[in-house]
Structures are given as structure tokens and as C-alpha cells.
Amino acid sequence: MARIGVFVCQCGNNIAAEVRTAEVAEKLKDVPGVVHAEDARFYCSNPGQEQIRKMIKEHNLDGLIVSACSPHMHEKTFRKAAETAGLNPFRVEIANIREHCSWVHHDPTKDLGTEKAGDIARMMVERVKRDRPLSKIKIPVTKRALVIGGGVAGIQAALDIADGGREVVLVEREPSIGGHMAQLSETFPTMDCSQCILTPKMVEAYQHPNIRLVTYAEVEKVDGYIGNFTVTIRKKAKSIVEENCTECGECIDKCPIKATSQFEMGMTKRKAMYIPFPQAVPGVPVIDRNACPKYVKDMSKCGLCAKVCGPQCIDFDQQDTFETVNVGAIVVATGYDVMPAENFPEFSGGKSKDVITGLHFERLASASGPTGGEIKRPSDGKVPETVVFIECSGSRDERRGVSYCSAICCMYSAKHAMLYKHKAHHGQAYIFYMDIRCGGKRYEEFHRRAVEQEGAIYLRGRVSRVYPRDGRLVVQGADTLVGSQVEIEADMVVLATAVVPRLGSKDLAQRLGIGYDQYGFYNEYHPKLKPVETVTGGIFLSGACIGPMDVPTAVAQGSAVAAKVLGLFSNDEMAREPIVAEVNRTTCNACWDCLVACPYKAIEREAIKNRQGEVLRYVARVNEGVCMGCGVCVAACHSKTIDLKGYSDAQVYAALAAV
Amino acid sequence: MKITLGPAGPSQSFARLVESLSGEDLSKCYQCGNCTGGCPVSFAMDIAPSQVIRMVQLGQEETVLRSNAIWRCVSCLQCYSRCPKCVDLSRIMESLRRLSLRRGHEPVTVYALPDEFIRRSPQMALVAGFRKLVP
């Protein structure tokens, strides 16, 4: 016979206002298996917990009900208290008579509340009777992390994990790490040169003994679970034997073929043999196979690079290779894209060369950019006298399916206006805006500086259209503060286009098994309290793949994620709750409905062999490291073969029957 | 009414003139509207006090100088006392009145006002109105 104790909490007046707790305790004493029942003011307090421990020993209890608040609140508290008194923590259940009873009902006589609280407690008694003592699951942890994406968020995460003494594999899609931040001219609000503060970090990541850079590569496949991931990386053919390259740059100098530079936003050319930008890390060039005549013209001519290469490391026949790495944690830091100007035909985007995006402007303002840092309009190279900046181009625009604010445009447009004024003293910057959202530290002051000291004129309204006239651009918008139409004849128009998820972000999310929102940004576990975790254990997020964010936030997240990863790596084994599914191997008929239904890929095929090692049949098996205890497989199973530990069918039915 | 803007010089010349006459920095105004909210006579103005600044910022010379708002202002300084950016709008109004007079606009003919009105009008309004008689 079970020896169950029931402890009914008054929670001050939270429960006692609706429930006669002493009466509930008294009635529960009549339930078979209950040997002790009592009530008190606060069981979560230290004396309350001490009382529970005392009663466990005094009555030799083997199961416990605490009728109190939600298990989210204090299940851990009471289980721990019971454990210290020698009781298996999974023989402790919470009857939620606060959120499920006293808070949601009002009956001045307290009759209904008392009755319902009794019912809830009785249900839990039946559950506890059938609770098996469980022990926490131990999982070994591979103390190596994979960081996907070498922008500033990924670099920061990699550096902090590496400084914490753990190995990091940093995978980057482009030939160089650096991401979008390497493209920026200056950074708000301090106006320090973006590359000057980023490249030391890039080099540090490159030289760090604990970091291995894998550039020009993509994550192909992810298997496994927290602490034990197996990741397949596709290393795209650089056409260069990386180990032998001395980064002398001779091949780049000799390459006669020009191709469009994506890094410079298409505003200039680079060679077919190239590094994206002069400070690229690593400085090993790659051959653009869409431009090099060796590939586009069927391995025929050229080959100049191979002739000049001292260490003879050019290999035209190189193929993509695959590498498998075992890691314990994955950090996703894949960053963002910006909507292209071509999406805005009403602003002459794509039609006029002088209608550009903010990223184009960054390159124009950058000392290493195509104009050497001078603001010259792309069409004829003239210094523009009037520049119009259009905020919210695509952002907060439900017609384009973007209802969110891109968060960085207010600040970078103010920065652009300042940079323009610094570089073209007689120029006039106009900025069309809907709202100014400069919420960061020293941000509002920065914006006001653009207005009050740099003379940028802000116009409160959206632009309706931009059209070319006599070599210039006519911008038609409004200033709602005056309440009238505004027309500006501009030389250049800069669109603060929306920050959007990386192309293929959903694809990667599916490969990783993490969630994403309707736009394709990745979902945090909890937007406030678990901002860098995902619902999938061991996979973390950092930077603008979560949503639009500025450099300081991305860096902060990189460090935050490193703290999480280092915490995970601090033990050789990690313990987790044993609330997982289990398979009864004798009744499984191998229909694999569970395998299809499982959202976490936790179900595997297990071979049943005889003594000779011959496979007799297959049954389902739950990988306890991956299983999240959601119960979908239990619902899918036809033969009632799968059950959830701690939430078995028998327990659920018994609880229902008790009402 | 359409506002046409362009290169720095022409668009900004009116604003710079008002700034030099009033001694106030127009770019400090971020259009919160506190001046309009507190103004005891804004109900009688054709354009609100905050809009006066806005129009000066955007070089809307004619509209501002022909508005009755600049003459209805009684320089009570309610706007200045509440302005979070410490812009003294009454000084700007005064400079606009002076500009209006220089241009020969005649929005108020003081001697034509009825006695009863003059008796009930605030002193400052009358002072502002008489100013045009001084060359």
C-alpha cells in the first residue's frame, strides 16, 4: 500500500481566499493510500519545506502531493526538498490549486473552490500511486562547438568560447569571415571605422589556437542531439591548395578576367581569382568558377594564375569535399540580408543607378570602397548636391509582407547624413521618416546631432515615388507636420531597405531542427528569458538571424551564447529530466508512425537479434538524449506500445477516474 | 500647397535669416508640439505655433509671413517655459513680425480696430500691432 502525504498550501491568501485548505486536507485523509494530510500558510518557505521533510521521515512517506501553485513555480523546489529527505523526486507531484482553481474562480462561500481543490488533489494522488521512481538521464558531452556564420556575432561567440578553453569550428560561407560588418564604413554612434575595430577580431579568430576556420563552406547535414552532434560540412572547391598558399597575391595580379564584386555591392569589378576585400581573413584567394574561362569555356584557355603561382598550389580540378565534425553545441549566427533596391520600382530602384541601398552607401563612404571614400553618385561619378534618404523602405510595409521595424535604419541613415555632410560640405541631406526610433545608449543624441549640427533635414512622411528628370531624381513625398506634399530634386536617393532573413534561412532551420517565424528569422526559446537558446537543446542563436539588430546587440549575443556553451561544456556529463517516451519492445509492431510523427528525430530503428547475431525484427527505440517528452509519439502509436515516463496512460486514466 | 526643396543654399536661406534675427537655433526643434499644446491663443491661429517653426525650417516664407498666427502671438512665453529643447518661439514670432513688416504686409490696421476690441485686447498684441507704424 502506498504511503502518500498531502500538503495543502494556503499561499498566504492566494488560495485560502477561495479554498478551505484545512477541510481539503481533512477530506484527503479518507483517500486510500493517503497516510498524512495537513495544510499550512507557505510550503515554499524554508520552515514549510522543513515541515515536509519532517513528515516524510515521521510517516515514512513514499509519495508526495503538494497542493499549491503551478508546477512551473515550485515543482523543482519541492522535488529537491523531498530528495534531501531521501524520497525519489519523481514521486512528488504538484496539484495546481492556485492558477487552476483559486485564481480563476470566485465563490464567497468557498464551497466550489474547496470542492475543486479536493478533486485536483485526488487526481494527483492517483497519479502519484502510479509514479515510478525515475532517475535523471546522463548524457556525455563533446566539448567542441560549431559556429555557423563568421560575421561579428559568430566571431564574438567563437572567440569567447575559445578563450574559455574549448575548441571551436567556425564555418563561413564566403571566402572570408567578417560578414556585413566588414562592409560598413563607420559604426554608430561612436563613428569608429568598422573595419578598424573588426579586423583585429578577425585576425584573432584566425590565429586562435582553439579556433579552426572553415571558409567557403556550408553546413550540409546535422545529426545527433545536445552534447553529441555530428555535422557534415561541404567545403566548396577554392581551386587552391589552401595549405600551400602563401597569400602573396601574385595570382590575383595576373588574372585577366573581371567579374562583379558582391562585396562592393556590384559597384565595381574584381578579378575572377579574388579575395573579397583587402583585409580578408584568411587571405587565401578563390577562383570564381562562374567567371574563370577555365570553367565557363570548358577548361580551355588561360591558366595564367597557375603559371605565376610560386608554390604551385592552384588546382583547377579540385572538387567539393566533405568533412564530418563531432560537436557538443551549435551556434547559429547566419546574419541577415537587405532587400535589394530592385524591389522598389516606384522609387526607380533598379532603373536608375543613383537609387541605391544603405549598404551601397556604406561602400561609397568607406575609405577602401570603390570611390576611395568620396561620395560620388554611381551614374556619372559627380558629387551629389542633394541626397534624399528614404527610411522604412520595405520595413513596416505590410503590402510587402514586412510588418516589423528593421531597427537599424534610423541610426544608420543619421550616420549616412553625417558622413555625407563631412565629405561633401555644401551638400544637403533630406531624410524622409515615419518615426525616429533611436532607443539605444547615446542613440537619440546621435540622431539629434545629425539634425542640429550637421544640418540634415528630416521630413515626417513616406515617399510616394521617385522618377528621373533631366539627369536628376524627383522625389515626391509628404511632410505631415506641415501637412503638405513635398517635392525634392535630388542627385542621389538612398533607400534604407528592410533587413530580411538570409536567403535559405528556412532551409538551414529545417536541417538543424529549429523554429523560425513567418519571415524566416529564427525563434528564440523565450524572447526575454532565453534569448539565445532554441527549443532544440544544444543549438543556440546569435546575431541578426534572430531579427534585425545592431552591432552592439549582436556582439552581446555572441558573448551571451558563449556563456551558455561554456556552461554546457563545464561538465563531462549533463543531466536532464527523465520525462521521455519509452517503447515496450514486446508489443511494437514496427509501423514507424512514431518515427514519422516525432518532431525531434528522437525515434530510431532498433534491431532485435538472436544469439547468432541474426536480425529477427526491428522495433522502435527512443533516443533519450533527443526526446523532449512531448508525447506526440504516444498519440500516434496504434498498439499503445509507447508511453511517456511520468505521464503514462495508466496514470492519466486513473487521475480522470478519481474525479 | 506643394513644398519644393533642393540644394542647401536656397532651401535654407529663409531659415538662416530668421535664425539670425531671432538668435534661436531652428534645428533644435523636434516638433513635439508642446508650444501648440500650451499656447493660449493657438485656437485662433490659422497655422499652429509648432507649424510656424516647421514651415520656417522648410523655407515656406510666404505662408508664414502672411499667416495671422505671428500676429496673434502675445509673447506670453508659455511656449518657451515648456519647450524641452529651450527654443524661444516668441523670439521667432517677433522676428517673423519684423520680416512681415519689412515686406510691407499689413495684417493689422490698428486704428481701424473697434474701441471695445482694443480695450479687451492684451497689451502685447497691441504693441505688436503698433510696431508696424514705426519705420
Structure commentary:
By secondary structure, chain A is of the alpha/beta class. Chain A folds into four domains: 4-129, Rossmann fold (3-Layer(aba) Sandwich); 144-328 and 547-568, FAD/NAD(P)-binding domain, CATH 3.50.50; 336-500, FAD/NAD(P)-binding domain, CATH 3.50.50.60; 581-657, 2-Layer Sandwich (Alpha-Beta Plaits), CATH 3.30.70.20. Chain A has 18 helices and 34 strands. A five-stranded parallel sheet of chain A has the order 10-7-6-18-29. In chain A, strands 20-27-21-22-23 form a five-stranded parallel sheet. A four-stranded parallel sheet of chain A has the order 2-1-3-4, sandwiched between helices. In chain A, helix 13 links the parallel strand 22 (428-433) and strand 23 (457-460). In chain A, helix 6 crosses helix 7 (194-207). The radius of gyration of chain A is 32 Å and the shape is globular. With 135 residues, chain B is mainly alpha-helical. Chain B has one domain (8-106): Fumarate Reductase Iron-sulfur Protein, Chain B, domain 2 (Orthogonal Bundle), CATH 1.10.1060.10. Chain B contains nine helices and one strand. Chain B has helices at residues 8-22, 34-38, 49-57, 61-65, 69-72, 78-82, 89-102, 115-120, 123-130, and one strand at residues 2-5. The longest helix of chain B is centred in the first third of the chain and has 15 residues, at 8-22. Chain B is globular. The chains are: A alpha/beta (659), B mainly alpha (135). The A-B interface holds A 385-386, 426-428, 430, 448, 451-452, 455, 457, 459-460, 479, 481-489 and B 1-9, 11-12, 25, 27-28, 30-31, 50-51, 54-55, 57-58, 60. Strand 26 (484-490) of chain A pairs parallel with strand 1 of chain B, so a sheet runs across the interface.
